[in-house]
Amino acid sequence: MKLFPTLARFCRVPLYWRYEPPVVPYEGLAKAALRLPAAPRICLLKLDMVGDLLVFLPAAQKLRDACPGAYILLVCGSWNAELATRSGLFDQIVTYDFWSYTDRRQKRRDDDLSKDVANLRLGHFDLAIDYRHDGDTRSLLGLIDATFRAGYSSSDPRARLDLALPDMEKHARRRGFTPLHARLRLDLLSEAVISTFLSDTNESFTGRSLALSTPEADLPDGPYVVIGIGAGQPVRQWPLENFITLAERLLAESDRKIVLVGSAKESTDTRTMCRHLPPGRCIDTAGQRSLGEVVDLIAGAELFIGNDAGLAHIADHESVPSVIILGGAGNKHVWAPTGRATEVLTAPMPCSPCYLRSTRECPFSLRCLTAIKVDDVYQAAIRATLSKRPAPAPIDRPVLRASLA
Q1: Rounded to an integer, what distance in angstroms lies between the CA atom of residue 145 and that of residue 123?
Q2: Which of 20, 188, 337, 373 has a Cα at 20 to 30 A from 99?
């Protein structure tokens, strides 16, 4: 049983039984990256040999194409400066010989790195990326003054990576796979950086809404709020009585309607919720609409409120202002919606993520969900609706040419 290891883990710390977690809006890496400027300053480290630089250039081209207005500085060995300049991809090139060109066993001492970086006078960057696959240069990356850092995983604690791809050669050797070509793994790092930091995560992978914009979409008259009370598993579900109290508060402040969505198995709860709300103000569609029709309802809503479930990702995909109540059963770093107008509420417990599937297995009575109060969600709803804003106008910036530092 999963209950025993869970209890064994936390009975050693009696204070956990009385721990009241704070309720905090969750902001993952993708959401934090939205604050980067339209033309970020990017520092690239490529400190190895000539062949390594040439294999790296297509990945650098991807980065330049994704963000043509970015200021990109390359730190490379002095032997690669001329070729890097001829590529025309970099706005500035700074040379730093981490190794001896003739003997890679001779490299800069760790004690000298901090002083070396200070002497380079690189300044602050929005993003710093180490494109060397091996981890020996990751300590240098950790010394770069940057808001975010990306690279391949390393055992060096000084790396301080915000975005890390695995050591692909090590994984391939352990599992008997053919390792990826160096160019492909460099491309993968660029693609991961672009997807995380240099693109609008509030847009879908297709760039298009899935909702119908024709009269075929059967939508309520006037403004409405969609609420999804289900979550597939009760261990991920905010209490029904909280949803009812929240809906009463939302209806009391305006003439909007409440639309309940969900599957047929949630219809008993949605009918109970409707009976507690003023007549004519609640529309129960649970089990009565196809998935496509649910998308239409959510896309036309003023606001969506729901649990950690597929409906939350529909609202996020459609850029609908949303409040998502995220318990501790799943990993928020993996599954939390990331849109600009999405507010994700969490109450972090020491045991999360627990990956439990049954409420009976939780020794803390789902405190990660019950600690989130109605007022927390109501205030988050106000913030979410205020955060919706038009897409920024395109900015025309010339691409600066590369030059030797």
Answers
A1: 7
A2: 188
Q: Which two tokens stand for residue 228?
A: 């999804």
What is the Cα–Cα distance from 241 to 373, expressed in whole angstroms? 11
| CB atoms near residue 201 (< 10 Å) | 20
Note the CATH number of domain 12-27+210-387: 3.40.50.2000
176: left (phi over 0), alpha (psi -120 to 50) or beta: left
- Domain range annotation of the chain: 12-27+210-387, 37-197
Torsion of CA 157, 159, 162, 163, to 10 degrees: -110
Rounded Cα distance between 191 and 63, Å, is 8
Does 25 sit behind a cis peptide bond, omega within 30 degrees of 0 on the bond before it? no
Neighbours of 159 (CB within 10 A): 20
Lowest mean pLDDT across 64-73, 215-224, 321-330: 215-224
> Count of residues for the chain?
405
Q: Residues 133-182: pLDDT tens digits?
A: 988 888 899 999 999 999 999 877 777 899 999 888 877 778 788 888 88
**Cβ(149)–Cβ(162) under 8 Å?**
yes
Strand pairing partners for 164? 151
How many angstroms separate the Cα of 349 from the Cα of each of 12, 69, 312, 369?
A: 15, 42, 22, 10
Q: Are 189 and 150 in contact (CB under 8 A)?
A: yes
Give pLDDT tens digits for 291-320: 999 999 999 999 999 999 999 999 998 989
**One-letter amino acid identity for 285?**
T
What does pTM read for this prediction?
0.77
